[in-house]
């Protein structure tokens, strides 16, 4: 997932407006008053919205400690993982790594200290988070996360697997214009045969199969499933559930969102302190490639039993039919 403009690709900085709950690792002065730390709002100010230029490096105040994540958004690719991370990190008790670390799938050999180094500094009581959407479908990841900590909370943003596959294809097409057609990739035997489950865009949507692997290492209660569809229709509602799951006070609410009619998606309102309203980058909420109705119907039929199994496993009907 290339780092793009908009809200993506920021350093580990939380959004402005967070409350400093203690002296930020700085010893309180006599009488218990905190020595004044560098102004957080300035040090952690987000880049200006709409700018595609890479954010200038943010000089992080050297207080707080880097910790391994308490919670990880593990998937799914194109589910809405960036939106969940950007929305939850408004919470003053959450700090998140801005870029996908790919530690558990690509860089595991670098060791846990490398991983810790990729995390933002946190103050006492703040949660550390990251998101790497490929984790959900990587066989080794659940075992590796469990080896780090069995207490890690796991968030999975799921979306109708047919729409997800088309979104995934649209992304690849944007980088590889001479890509074969969706139909050619999705079906075997010159497009007339069965669904080709070896194509990643198809395989990722077999949520029930991937989940089985996670349940060998984590109880279901430690996993939270966000509906990618509800996330667009009612971001505050989905974020309320995410905050409950993380044991956080419900601070991110409908007051933080507005529907941007130009983008056609919810965006973040201007924070009280400073800045401008912010939408996700251009690669989020793209117009999808046109796929013929037959192919879509065939895929719907193909995924139906896997979806039903997934609903049973998680105890929630995502209504993808
Ligand atoms: N508020 C808001 N703004 C923009 N986009 C939003 C939002 N909420 C959810 N989404 C959906 O997020 C989809 C991209 O998912 P991911 O961030 O998981 O993609 S990635 O795997 O990191 O590439 C992206 O997929 P596409 O619509 O196919 O581009 C969006 O549908």
Please tell me about this protein's structure.
Keywords: Disulfide bond, Glycoprotein, Golgi apparatus, Membrane, Signal-anchor, Transferase, Transmembrane, Transmembrane helix. 3'-phosphoadenylyl sulfate binds at residues 78-82, 159, 167, 284-288. It is a single-pass type II membrane protein. This protein has a single domain (64-314), classed as P-loop containing nucleotide triphosphate hydrolases (Rossmann fold, 3-Layer(aba) Sandwich). The protein has a five-stranded parallel sheet with strand order 3-5-2-6-7. Strands 1-4 form a two-stranded antiparallel ribbon. With 321 residues, it is α/β, with parallel strands linked by helices. 37% of the residues are buried. It has helices at 40-43, 81-88, 112-117, 141-148, 161-175, 182-186, 200-203, 207-215, 228-233, 235-245, 293-314, and strands spanning 65-66, 71-75, 94-96, 121-122, 127-131, 153-158, 223-227, 257-260, 265-268. The chain is built from eleven helices and nine strands. Residues 1-6 and 8-57 have low confidence and may be disordered. Bound molecules: 3'-phosphate-adenosine-5'-phosphate sulfate. Residues 1, 77-83, 133, 167, 231-232, 265-266, 280, 284-286 line the site of 3'-phosphate-adenosine-5'-phosphate sulfate. 3'-phosphate-adenosine-5'-phosphate sulfate binds at residues 1, 77-83, 133, 167, 231-232, 265-266, 280, 284-286.
Q: Could you say which small molecules are bound to this protein? A: 3'-phosphate-adenosine-5'-phosphate sulfate
Radius of gyration: 20 Å
Distance between the termini: 28 Å
Strand order of the largest sheet: 3-5-2-6-7
Helix/strand/pairing category: alpha/beta
Identify the overall geometry. Answer: globular
What is the helix fraction of residues, given as a range? Answer: 25-40%
Q: What CATH architecture label applies?
A: 3-Layer(aba) Sandwich
> In percent terms, what proportion of residues is strand?
5-15%
CATH topology: Rossmann fold
Average predicted local confidence, pLDDT: 85
The helix-strand sequence is: HEEHEHEEHEHHHHEHHEEH
Organism: Hippocampus comes (Tiger tail seahorse)
Domain Sulfotransferase: 70-304
Membrane topology: Single-pass type II membrane protein
Disulfide bonds: 267-279
């Amino acid at each position: 997932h290339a780092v793009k403009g908009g809200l993506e690709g920021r350093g580990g900085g939380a959004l402005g407006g967070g409350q400093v709950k203690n002296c930020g690792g700085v010893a309180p002065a006599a009488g218990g008053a905190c020595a004044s730390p560098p102004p957080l709002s300035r040090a952690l100010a987000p880049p200006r919205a709409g700018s595609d230029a890479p954010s200038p490096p943010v000089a992080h105040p050297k207080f707080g400690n880097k910790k391994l994540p308490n919670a990880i958004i593990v998937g799914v690719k194109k589910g809405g993982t960036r939106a969940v991370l950007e929305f939850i990190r408004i919470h003053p008790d959450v700090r998140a790594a801005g870029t996908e670390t790919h530690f558990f799938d690509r860089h595991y050999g670098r060791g846990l200290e490398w991983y810790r180094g990729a995390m933002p500094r946190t103050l006492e009581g703040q949660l550390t988070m990251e998101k790497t959407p490929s984790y959900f479908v990587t066989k080794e990841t659940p075992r590796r996360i469990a080896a780090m900590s069995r207490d890690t909370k796991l968030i999975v943003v799921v979306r109708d697997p047919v729409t997800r596959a088309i979104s995934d294809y649209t992304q690849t097409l944007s980088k590889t214009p001479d890509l074969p057609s969706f139909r050619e990739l999705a079906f075997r035997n010159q497009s007339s045969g069965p669904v080709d489950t070896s194509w990643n865009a198809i395989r990722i949507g077999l949520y029930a199969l991937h989940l089985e692997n996670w349940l060998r290492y984590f109880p279901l209660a430690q996993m939270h499933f966000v509906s990618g569809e509800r996330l667009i229709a009612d971001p505050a509602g989905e974020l309320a559930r995410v905050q409950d799951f993380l044991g956080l006070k419900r601070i991110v609410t409908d007051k933080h969102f507005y529907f941007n009619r130009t983008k056609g998606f919810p965006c973040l309102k201007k924070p009280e302190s400073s800045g401008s309203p912010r939408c996700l980058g251009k690669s989020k909420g793209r117009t999808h490639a046109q796929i013929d109705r037959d192919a879509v119907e065939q895929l719907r039929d193909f995924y139906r039993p896997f979806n039903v199994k997934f609903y049973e496993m998680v105890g929630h009907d995502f209504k993808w039919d």
